[in-house]
């Protein structure tokens, strides 16, 4: 068997992703590996990945405001953007999953007990597929900020959790989308765990007047960029014409 | 310019689990096994709010994916498993042991499953690989990169209905994690 020609996924520049050991975020203390990571040369298993399609979706999964008989409380928003690889190519037909707190900052989770009311009309869970341009769209409500126990008077800035796959195991990404000009950024260790200032800003959505719907909803734009690939020979070049 | 990673946080279980997530293959599939294990932290305590995801070739070592240079298998093999940990930190995946997958230089890799672990307290997923104690792992080029005294952390042990693969995020017997 000859060498396999495989795409290779570029490593992100230092500072793009958070360190696993981050003192400001207390939960990392007992959960970060202390041994160095072993560099894994990308092989077939790493450059392929799950391609999860339409079978995963229900009809109203991309509209979090219509999943119950009544409407949820809060500011209705449209969240839209494109899933792209590092070469700005759209990632098509790809599953995007989100989850979030309600307008008062409370998750519909048994572990979330802070005294802000649950909303019987809001689950805070959405799924959709990207289209041929890599675009996804959700209708939801703007999540509230919520307190947590990380440090004295700690509050998470409003955010929506995003999960995306791309087309390769190397591209798997879970992130959080933030809102412009949140006054809570300064004290949030999760947001600030990203060393590179410009990378950190890429997690903040942009208010998008063009996509607002009159008398209905505000809109935010959030593009998600995954690692790019460059076609290259995986191993030493084989002799030509073999 | 890539979007940064952020933790899944403590409430991932409202959004990410699927009913059939742990079922890479349907019940009754010939050769189906359960891979079960516990995710634990640096104090040896179970991690009850983690998500374990798996990615693998089918029993013939093929991927149903366009970037498999041998051609997509075309058999609809999902290859993907996903299971949140329970209150005892345990996860389970029903799958088949993958076949050997070609690696560098066309040499076969030992059967393996790629794993992502996501959790509160993990700002970025951690990645590891499952190998199998009853397969020949001696020539695997990835295992060879791992210090010999830590290789055992990547090798699932036989159980009655499959294999056991524990993940220790930190400390004694810390699992080997990879930079992919
Ligand atoms: Fe959150």
From TrEMBL, chain A:
CDD domains: 3_4-PCD_beta
Record-annotated Protocatechuate 3,4-dioxygenase beta subunit N-terminal domain positions: 9-42
TM spans (from-to): none
InterPro entries: Intradiol_dOase_C (IPR000627), Intradiol_dOase_core (IPR015889), Intradiol_RC_Dioxygenase (IPR050770), PCDO_beta_N (IPR024756), Protocat_dOase_b (IPR012785)
Disordered, as annotated region: 1-22
Keyword Oxidoreductase: yes
Basic and acidic residues composition bias: residue spans: 1-15
Swiss-Prot/TrEMBL keywords: Dioxygenase, Oxidoreductase
GO molecular function, one term: ferric iron binding
Sequence ranges assigned to domain Intradiol ring-cleavage dioxygenases in this UniProt record: 48-228
Domain of life: Bacteria
GO biological process, one term: 3,4-dihydroxybenzoate catabolic process
Family affiliation: Belongs to the intradiol ring-cleavage dioxygenase family.
NCBIfam families the UniProt entry points to: protocat_beta (TIGR02422)
Matches recorded under PANTHER family: DIOXYGENASE, PUTATIVE (AFU_ORTHOLOGUE AFUA_2G02910)-RELATED (PTHR33711), INTRADIOL RING-CLEAVAGE DIOXYGENASES DOMAIN-CONTAINING PROTEIN (PTHR33711:SF10)
Name of the protein: Protocatechuate 3,4-dioxygenase beta subunit
Record organism: Amycolatopsis xylanica
TrEMBL record, chain B:
Domain Intradiol ring-cleavage dioxygenases: 33-171
GO MF, any single term: protocatechuate 3,4-dioxygenase activity
CDD domains in alphabetical order: 3_4-PCD_alpha
InterPro entries, per the entry: Intradiol_dOase_C (IPR000627), Intradiol_dOase_core (IPR015889), Intradiol_RC_Dioxygenase (IPR050770), Protocat_dOase_a (IPR012786)
Keyword terms, alphabetized: Dioxygenase, Oxidoreductase
Entry keyword Translocase: no
Pfam families, alphabetized: Dioxygenase_C
Family membership: Belongs to the intradiol ring-cleavage dioxygenase family.
Protein name per UniProt: Protocatechuate 3,4-dioxygenase alpha subunit
